[in-house]
């Protein structure tokens, strides 16, 4: 989270939120690193940047964490 309570990134992964079969990742202006997998998905048009909050995590169809080593891994709430 950044100082505006927007999602940014995990310690070694980017965050992706799926809604209505579309994939979203936090906007680079939120203060996150532009990960390799994230950049590839954006460049290929497979996801879009947007400002995301905790509420977006709660209402998402699915949440993924991803990096270039492991790919996208579905996150499960505990």
Please describe what this structure looks like:
This protein is of the alpha+beta class. The protein starts with 13 loop residues before the first strand and ends with a strand. The chain is 18% helix and 31% strand. The chain has one domain (14-74): D-amino Acid Aminotransferase, Chain A, domain 2, CATH 3.20.10.
- Helix and strand composition category: alpha+beta
The name of the CATH superfamily reads D-amino Acid Aminotransferase, subunit A, domain 2
Which sequence of SSEs, written as H and E, runs from N to C?
Answer: EEHEHEE
Overall tally of domains: 1
Helix content: 10-25%
List the helices and strands and how they pair.
Blueprint: E1 14-19, E2 22-26, H1 36-43, E3 48-50, H2 54-59, E4 62-67, E5 71-74
Parallel strand pairs: 2-3
Antiparallel strand pairs: 1-2, 1-4, 4-5
Concise structural overview:
The protein is 18% helix and 31% strand. It is α+β, with helices and mostly antiparallel strands and 78 residues long.
Question: Could you name the key traits of this structure?
Answer:
D-amino Acid Aminotransferase, Chain A, domain 2; five-stranded mixed β-sheet; 2 helices; 18% helix; globular
């Amino acid at each position: 989270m950044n100082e505006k309570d927007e999602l940014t990134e995990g310690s070694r992964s980017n965050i992706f939120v799926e809604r209505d079969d579309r994939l979203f990742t936090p906007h680079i202006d939120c203060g996150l690193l532009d990960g390799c997998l994230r950049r590839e998905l954006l460049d290929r048009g497979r996801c879009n940047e947007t400002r995301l909050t905790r509420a977006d995590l709660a209402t998402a169809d699915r949440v993924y964490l991803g990096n270039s080593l492991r790919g996208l891994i579905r996150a499960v709430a505990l």
